[in-house]
Amino acid sequence: MGAFYDNSIIPDHLKRNFDVYDRINKLGIDLGTFDVGPPPTSSDATVTSLKGQGISQMVFHESGLVHLSGHGYGPGQMYDDANRIKEGQDAAEWVANLMIKRLHWALTCGDEGGDLNDVLYTVKAIGMVVSTDVAFNGGPAVMNGFSERWQSVFGGGKGEFAVDGEDQNYGGVHARSAIGGFTGRFTIEPEIIVAIPPELAKTVIQNRGWIYPLPPEMLDRMKFRPAQHR
Questions:
Q1: Looking at the domain that runs over 3-229, which CATH code has it been given?
Q2: Fewer CB atoms inside 10 Å of the end CB: C or N, the chain?
Q3: How many CB atoms lie under 10 A from the CB of residue 52?
Q4: DSSP label at 25?
Q5: Which of 110, 111, 149, 142 is nearest to 128 (CA)?
Q6: Which residues contact 9 (CB under 8 A, 6 or more apart)?
Q7: Can you give the pTM of this predicted structure?
């Protein structure tokens, strides 16, 4: 682990003893590469400018809380059919992968010394599942695709690395709401809040601000960094 995590408030017997990037590699999650090009037209999460954007992907708070905005994705409305629920779970997992990618770059793009291993624990997730069927009961099941992928990376008894419901660490387990009944041309929009060491959050804010993607002047500054930092 990094210095921020090692020096955190987490007691030694609850600290993670695995590298989350090892799990990310085993799960086949593509973190992409540093990108200083124009803002993406799709869900590409590489480092971009905040210019012209009215909503940020995430906000750092000096307390150590990092709020990630929701992202809608999936084939459309859900209904209580096993195959359709599986499609929804796959969409929710895809969003989790995207948010992990975004969080990676938000923590690393400024070279403050932090990365995904500095996620102390996960605080709260919300999943809004699109379904106009008033009898739909599968909202929590669809959201499980998101929550279980999060636990697979950061630790939890429902993750892919758990054995008999136990994992070495439970940093991916979170409080959660999962409800259906929304309209939209996608399936689910999850959002999540994680905790990082306050020292890291303050360092990020002092170096490049509290918001991600980056303000234009900060992105311009990073264009001239050595290639190994991209």
A1: 3.30.1330.40
A2: C
A3: 7
A4: H
A5: 142
A6: 120, 197
A7: 0.92
